[in-house]
Design goal:
This protein is of the alpha/beta class. The protein is about 50% helix and about 15% strand. It has helices spanning about 20-30, 45-55, 70-85, 110-135, 155-175, 195-210, 210-220, 230-240; strands at about 10-15, 35-40, 60-65, 90-95, 140-145, 180-190, 255. Helix 2 (about 45-55) links the parallel strand 2 (about 35-40) and strand 3 (about 60-65). It is globular and about 50 Å long. The two termini are about 30 Å apart. The structure holds NADPH dihydro-nicotinamide-adenine-dinucleotide phosphate (NDP).
């Protein structure tokens, strides 16, 4: 791999890494040469992943952290990763959660939970790692947003508002951190084949009486490609954004959605 494509010697942290998109990104970063800290709330699910990354010849650590808790983010996540790796080159804000409800009678609890999980967590984690990147005058911050950061859709008002907010934060940080050679970008996937989407399908089955197959096909039909995105397709874009070759790409939102939206 040429120098500007290899991530050898780079240190990465991925939130929400125990399954789905985050797990695929962690493995793809390691495959490209990076040392990787993997984080989520459930440590047991992370240990096996850290062992896999270690077996690829990279340094790997597993850190239990709830990204909605600023104390845990500052002390356990940033403290643990920076202490172990001695710095950080790539931050992937991937942890997130979906939830749906009609707007009339929308539960306030869902509103606050969606904003905490999908927007404020990106603020806490980026704030915790930015000083180390600023000190070394380089870094990559990659946030997994969603096409819900680009367009509206019914029954997901809180998730949509949170993902739009996360993208706003990405754009503001891109400008503010530019002088320090730090790029800040978002990836906006359509429906990806992960446990989150499985849960969404189960929810649709329960609410509408559709079969699981029908519910899955209705999500597939939302993409012109008539299929779900794979976690690995999202991971490849994250690896690209992390590479030296992507040094001039910042403040961008890259859709990985099979052409579902084109703006
Ligand atoms: P999954 O539900 O499959 O995985 C979510 C990951 O986040 C798990 O590792 C989970 O581990 C972790 N997590 C959940 N809550 C917290 C928390 N409070 N603190 C720390 N970690 C947490 O999700 P996906 O892989 O599908 O999604 C990943 C990201 O991609 C999310 O931001 C999502 O919004 C976004 N996205 C997903 C799409 C899809 O169709 N799946 C489409 C577009 C965007 P644990 O529970 O142990 O904490």
């Amino acid at each position: 791999m040429s120098d500007d494509l290899s991530l050898r010697g780079k240190r990465a942290v991925v939130t929400g890494a125990s399954r789905g998109i985050g797990r695929a990104i962690a493995l793809a970063l390691a495959e490209a040469g990076a040392d990787v800290a993997v984080s989520a709330r459930t440590k047991s699910e992370l240990d096996e992943l850290a062992e896999m990354i270690h077996a690829m010849g990279r340094r790997a650590i597993a850190v239990a952290c709830d990204v909605t808790d600023p104390q845990q983010v500052a002390v356990h996540l940033a403290g643990g990763v920076l202490g172990e790796f001695g710095g950080i080159d790539i931050l992937v804000n991937n942890a997130g959660a979906s939830g749906s409800a009609k707007f009339v009678g929308h539960p306030d609890e869902l509103w606050h939970r969606m904003l905490a999980m999908n927007m404020t967590s990106v603020y806490y984690v980026s704030k915790a790692f930015a000083p180390a990147m600023i000190a070394q005058r380089s870094g990559r911050i990659i946030t997994i947003a969603s096409i819900a950061a680009r367009v509206g859709a019914k029954y997901i008002a809180a998730y949509t508002a949170a993902k739009h907010g996360a993208l706003g934060l990405v754009r503001a940080l891109a400008v503010e951190l530019l002088p320090y050679n730090i790029t800040v970008n978002a990836i906006c996937p359509g429906y990806v084949d992960t446990p989150m989407t499985q849960a969404n399908i189960a929810n649709m089955v329960q609410r509408t009486g559709m079969s699981e197959q029908q519910a899955r096909e209705s999500l597939e039909r939302m993409s012109p490609q008539q299929r779900l995105i794979t976690p690995e397709e999202v991971a490849r874009v994250a690896v690209f954004l992390a590479q030296d070759a992507a040094a001039s790409i910042t403040g961008q939102a890259i859709n990985v959605d099979g052409g579902a939206i084109m703006s």
